[in-house]
Design brief:
This protein has 288 residues and is of the alpha+beta class. 24% of the residues lie in helices and 21% in strands. Strands 1, 2, 4 and 5 form a 4-stranded antiparallel sheet that branches. A 3-stranded antiparallel sheet has the order 3-12-11, with no helix packed on it. Strands 6-10-13 form a 3-stranded antiparallel sheet, covered by helices on one side. The two termini are 35 Å apart. The structure holds 2-amino-4-trifluoromethylsulfanyl-butyric acid (MF3) and cobalt (II) ion (2 copies).
Length: 288
């Protein structure tokens, strides 16, 4: 029962959690209600950055595997299984599985779902757009990335939204430089998105990532100044993950307490990379 008579997505049925071999190291939060509070900062040495890159490469490779297999008629649970199998067969743990009770190995956000869609028996159809968000935990660190997949038959307005959302991520990354406040990233994203009249989601943000899935550092995707004035430093690692919509930036939460949808059911796109701040800008850590 993927869509109602207006074509809007409604909750489907969840399948059982997928298994992870016992030899794969779990993050500390698995089996607990919430992660332990993060004590460290967001700056990493070369060795740790290399480990985040290795985790990020697996997450990105899992998205490549999804892209190669995706066909209309597949369910979001089938997409999740492809990502799960890729991550675990590369020796990593899918970070979302058991994170604050989240039941699946990826987030699959279709059409008007902004983020955190839970894979279920919803069938992906021609004309749909799907965000898949995968985080891999390897050697004690997380790499977090997401991207959009367009099914055949997407309208021009929607494909423009998808392309411009990716461009907004590139512009956000270009604003990264040591010594600047993190809110310059959001300013770059929002000023680009506003040209097209897009909604810019404010309440879901980028975040510090590395030892912890979400470190507490917030990276806004809108011009939040003077808020979010953390100064970027060389070696700082965080995600940038703008969500743009064809309508409002306002959202509703489903009763599952995860799925975030646009209040006006307008379609929405997101792209995410984990990056490290270098002397010269941002270097992406989530490439295949
Ligand atoms: N990967 C998502 C992010 O970009 C977080 C998902 S948390 C989950 O931060 F629990 F919803 F999976
Ligand atoms: Co993230
Ligand atoms: Co993510």
């Amino acid at each position: 029962m993927p869509k109602d008579s207006n074509g809007q997505i409604i909750p489907g049925t969840l399948s059982a959690a997928l298994a992870v071999a016992p030899g794969i190291r779990r993050p500390e939060y698995v089996g607990k209600a919430a992660p332990s509070p993060y004590e460290g900062d967001n700056v990493y040495d070369t060795d740790a950055i290399e480990r985040i890159r290795n985790a990020g490469r697996i997450a990105s490779g899992a998205l490549d595997a999804v892209g190669a297999a995706l066909r209309p008629g597949m369910t979001t649970a089938e997409v999740d299984a492809i990502g799960h199998d890729y991550v675990t067969s590369h020796g990593a743990y899918p970070s979302t599985l058991g994170y604050r009770g989240y039941p699946k190995s990826s987030c699959t956000s279709l059409n008007e779902i902004i983020c955190h869609g839970i894979p279920d028996d919803t069938v992906i159809e021609d004309g749909d757009i799907l965000n898949v968000d995968i985080t891999a935990f390897l050697e004690g660190v997380h790499g977090d990335t997401n991207r959009m997949f367009m099914l055949p038959g997407v309208s021009q307005d929607v494909s423009d939204l998808v392309e411009r959302t990716e461009e907004s991520l590139r512009r956000g990354m270009k604003a990264v430089a040591p010594g600047r406040q993190v809110n310059v990233i959001g300013r770059a994203i929002e000023s680009y998105a506003k040209r097209f009249g897009y909604g810019v989601v404010r309440d879901f943000t980028g975040h510090g990532v590395g030892t912890n899935f979400h470190s507490g550092l917030i990276i806004p995707h809108y011009d939040s100044a003077p808020q979010y004035d953390d100064i970027m430093e060389v070696g700082m690692v965080f995600t940038i993950e703008p969500m743009l919509t064809l309508g409002t930036h306002e959202w509703n939460m489903w009763d599952d307490n995860w799925t975030v949808v646009t209040k006006d059911a307008s379609w929405t796109a997101q792209f995410e990379h984990t990056i490290v701040v270098t002397e010269t800008g941002a270097e992406i850590l989530t490439l295949s």
